[in-house]
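seq as requested:
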Amino acid sequence: MMASFAQFGNELYSGKRSYDIVGRRRRWFMISAVLLLLSVVLLLTRGLNPGIEFRGGSEFMISGTAITDQQPAHDALAEVAPTQEARVSTVGTNAVRVQTEELTDEETTELRELLAEAYEVDVNDVTASFVGPTWGQSVTNKALRGLVIFLVLVTVVMALYFRRWTMAAGALVALLHDLVITVGLYAGVGFEVTPATVIGFLTILGYSLYDTVVVFDKVRENTEGVLDQSRYTYAEAANLAVNQTLVRSINTSVLAVLPVASILFVGAFLLGAGTLRDIALALFIGMIVSTASSVFIAAPVEVALRGRNPAVREHTEKVMAARERRAAEAAASGEDPEAALADARPGGLVAGAHLGQRAQPRRKRQRR
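struct tokens:
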């Protein structure tokens, strides 16, 4: 299995096996548009579910209880504040968290006693705290400010590093694509948005950028001097780069997603560690989406923008015209047109192929 996967990677790197990812970019753009539309619809219909840190309110934590049902908490709140609705969640195996709107001191004391009685614990085992909405607003403003600064710096650094504004634009489109889809799917699941969730959203931007930079670095390497030859086009050289980094992207994403998935599914759903599921869900969705976007969105967008350059467009037309002439000449002489165009493709190094001992430097014999 490992040998076959390694051979698969070697064939992708050498160009022996190739998937026309860049050439089918309209298909990926349509799929991306559908996902973006779905995410926007989820955001507009369901909306984000802000946690108590953002909306403010009172929170009660009941520890050491053998009863983890949610109904006793709802009944207790109905006696104190009938117009309010509690948000009840289980934390671990012997704790219950109850969140309400802001309560007065008298209502807080009364609800503590009712919760202690309902869950058969001592009053001291029920802690109450109040969170003001101003703290959540401060976190939101800082997160938005950090997001804007991050995107601006990414655009500048990418443009300076690659010396191509098209790569900076492709990376920026991929980042916004990942952020919108992740936030939309998160809203669809309905988990609360906490400060940990915001940290998860910002983390996936860095992960997405890392994967995109690796792909673009290979694209720049393959397309260096591409206009000085007539075997293949800029898009074909970029497509080879995407294929060459495909196995690496798969390996990196699998290794990154597995521990996050274990935290999300084992920790949050099986063990009831509700405090981890917010950031775990954001990272789980974001890592998968960002890996796909670096392959199917960032590079194709860069090629589409680069293809508008007059020099690149003229070179592409020249290469395609030369291929048509060669195919026509081969058909006229009775040869197979595909065989005549066998070398009309970009290719990388073939793993394991070398010149043997002839490529090694010869050592001078020492006189004795």
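The chain is about 65% helix and 10% strand.
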